[in-house]
Amino acid sequence: MDSGSRVVFAVIMIMACMGTRANGLSSITAPNTLPSGNISRANCGTTQLCAAQPAGCNPSVSGSCFFVSTSLISGQNFSFHLQGQSSGYVAVGLSRTIKTGQNDSVYVCANINNTVNFSSTLYNNGVLTHTNTQANLVMGSVSGQTIRCIFSATVPNATSTKSSSTSFFLSIYNGTLTNGLPSIPKAVFISTAPVDLSNPTAIATNSLYMGIISRANCGTTQFCAAQPAGCNPSVSGSCFFVSTILISGQNFYFQLQGQSSGYVAVLLSKTTTTGQYYSVYVCANINNTFKLFSIIYNNGTLTPTNTLPSNLVTGSVSGQTIQCIFSALVPNATSTKKSTSFFISIYNGTVTNGLLGSPNAIFTSTAAVDLSNPNATATNRLTSASPNAFGLQRTLSQALPILLGGLVFIMM
């Protein structure tokens, strides 16, 4: 989010606390305290549509539960119940396509000095912009990390979905606030298909937590690469697999799986030349604790970085199989024909005494592939024993143990 947008959002929040209006609509302070039991699953499937992460969790009991329900008032006007855990804000998003962050309607409930403040926004290319969409906060509360709010909103017409004017891809987000400035929304739930907000019996399944990494959506909503070619990560056996789904702009979801006693990693390169500013995302099992690292590899040096924002969604270790799902804001691939086209590689390696060992290259694409194109094809260069591919593996092997050892020390 650029500094100008951050300032606008901060001003909105500040004006909300003062009870004034911004751009024609207040960012409203909750007028009432909302008892924890007022948001529940009691009417799910009868009078309200419900979506939650974990699936089926009950927002009226203690524990982590991201939950949203909708009930039709009339026409495009709905009542929303929203709950989630965050030190900053929770939000619900409505998107006309699976690619979220393209002028989506996002309703934000933020914790400002332990008081819920509400704002209606448009989410586009990683930026939340205040809008004068008709929406009103009914009540809200903050209890520790749990934010709850009930509000009404007149949703836009879902013109690009097929089922009805009230069918959207439904998302739940959370994020932090630093000095009143919001982070980029982190998705906790994105439905696999449009759901009709007016249909209490509709089922919303979380595309981010389907419980397993698979090839189900390869070629339709996600780009996939694997070794052996075409292997299925959802069945037993060795399969190194990575998939990408465009969220918006340069922001992607990654699904990564591989076999290792230590770590698996995906690398994005703008060129085939070794040591030229690679982005590396490492999913590691360190002392039975799952960690995600974002690092830059350039001219033989690996450096932990904050310039590659990434967030671990979920990760697991089962025997030798490591799985992780994470979001990442990838750099602009300026040296390729499109900003989202990279040479993509998969690696694995060991972890010894908390230090990541030398990487072993499993897959390196023969050409730059567009991560945003589900129909893109990635062929493994290593099967043809390319000198460039093995040069990359050798150079990384020399640099990784020392510098990632320092990274692990910093992160733990």
In words, what does this structure look like?
With 412 residues, this protein is mostly beta strands. The chain has 2 domains: 3-196, Immunoglobulin-like (Sandwich), CATH 2.60.40; 223-411, Immunoglobulin-like (Sandwich), CATH 2.60.40. It is 10% helix and 45% strand. The chain contains 2 helices and 29 strands. The chain has helices spanning 3-18, 387-411; strands at residues 28-29, 49-53, 66-74, 77-85, 89-95, 102-112, 115-124, 127-130, 135-143, 146-154, 167-175, 177-178, 181-182, 186-190, 195-196, 223-227, 240-248, 251-259, 263-269, 278-286, 289-298, 301-304, 310-318, 321-329, 341-349, 351-352, 355-356, 360-364, 369-370. The strands form 6 sheets. Strands 1, 5, 6, 7, 8, 11, 14 and 15 form an 8-stranded antiparallel beta sheet that branches.
Proportion of helical residues = under 10%
Structural class: mainly beta
Main sheet specs: 8 strands, antiparallel
Radius of gyration: 22 Å
Strand content: over 45%
CATH topology of the largest domain: Immunoglobulin-like
> What is the typical, i.e. mean, pLDDT?
78
Specify the CATH architecture of the largest domain: Sandwich
Q: Which ranges are low-confidence, i.e. pLDDT below 50, for 5 or more consecutive residues?
A: 1-26, 386-391, 401-412
Shape: globular
Distance from first to last alpha carbon: 28 Å
Helix count equals: 2
Number of self-contained structural domains: 2
